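Protocol step 4 of 6: structure prediction from sequence.
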Amino acid sequence: MHTMGIVNSAIFTALSGNSTLNTYVGGRFSPKVAPGGETVPYITYRYAFGGELNNTPKPAFEIFVDIVGVADTQPKAAVAAGYIRDILKNVLPVFPAASGYQPWGTVRESWPIQNTMEVQGQPFWEVGSTYRFRGYLP
């Protein structure tokens, strides 16, 4: 399994498994961007940078991912971002067993990401952070 697929799976498992966040966003989680016409709020997570590490004795990766809440107001997007932060804080990701990778760490690298965008004349807010996910083969 490709490392980005491993990380996407871990993010989806962690975030969708939290009943408070899942209820708040109505189960709407999407890698990259939300599908057209998606109701807000929702969560998106997208690759920022990183990849395979070549300075470790065992195969490993370090992937940085922007994870944001998207809503029609900044306060609603910030609530989603707060849930994300609380869920991922001090939690090792659960990588798919088939990947063979073991978790090494999850760290929030930045706060905040705060962007506005407009879709068909409707303003939206993105609020979140960049998170670093690391894994290694035992």
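Step 5 (inspection) to follow. The first strand starts at residue 29 and ends at 31.
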